[in-house]
Amino acid sequence: EADGQHQVGQREGGRRGGLHGAPQKRPPPRFLLLPPLSAVALSINTEFRRIDKFATGPPGARLTVTDSWILKVTTYSFHVALQRDLQLTVIDSRQQDLLLDASMPAQFLTIRVASADPRVKAFDIRLNSSEYGELQDKLRAPIQNGANVVIHQSLSDLFLETFSSLVERNPPYLLPSNQELDLCIGCMQSRANVKLLKNCREPHEGECQPCFCYPMWCLLCMGKWFASQQDQQHPETWLSSHVPCPTCRAQFCILDVCSVQ
Description:
The relative contact order is 0.11. By secondary structure, the chain is an alpha+beta fold. It has two domains: 37-145, Pleckstrin-homology domain (PH domain)/Phosphotyrosine-binding domain (PTB) (PH-domain like), CATH 2.30.29; 155-259, no CATH class. The termini are far apart. It is elongated, with a radius of gyration of 31 Å. Helix content is 23%, strand content 22%. The chain contains five helices and twelve strands.
């Protein structure tokens, strides 16, 4: 009987998790292993004082990224998240509406910040695409592109997109039925699809001049040519400037660039 009780005890002890009958404990999830609040505050305060942090945004919606933390401070809220628990995803992209007298365009990205810790509510951050690379350098994990957004990180990329959208608003050039379009002489890959026609003012008014060239350039190459003629130190003047035709040197502006139909 003693032997039977000993065997039962051994079985029960095994079920309880060890030779000594002590129950085995699973390690808690990593996000539960949080330091005391005072240690968190000390860590944030120390890293916030460093000069290598990433910071952007107006006072009412300020974003700061340190070595370990992401902090978003708005007029009515404060969000803080530990970098090691985060997943960041680009969910939207917006470009400001532009007029010819406006400054250079800007692409703004919306990035969702989600934590593996269920106690940390997800929040969104918004920043200029020109700052995207600097933000990536400060993060421990890569940013996912959930919306397949084309991110323009250079001034030229933003200008070419705006140049194309403005040309689409101009009156088209109707190609005569007896003419055919050749390859663009700039890239020799795409068909020529733009023609310079003086649309901005009356024929003999203003700086722009009539251009009698046959369509020889594609929209992308014409945009690159337009950008190459600008003052790189003053991008706010690009959209309202005048440049010479790359073939005949007649002056034109963006209003004179017409898509071929």
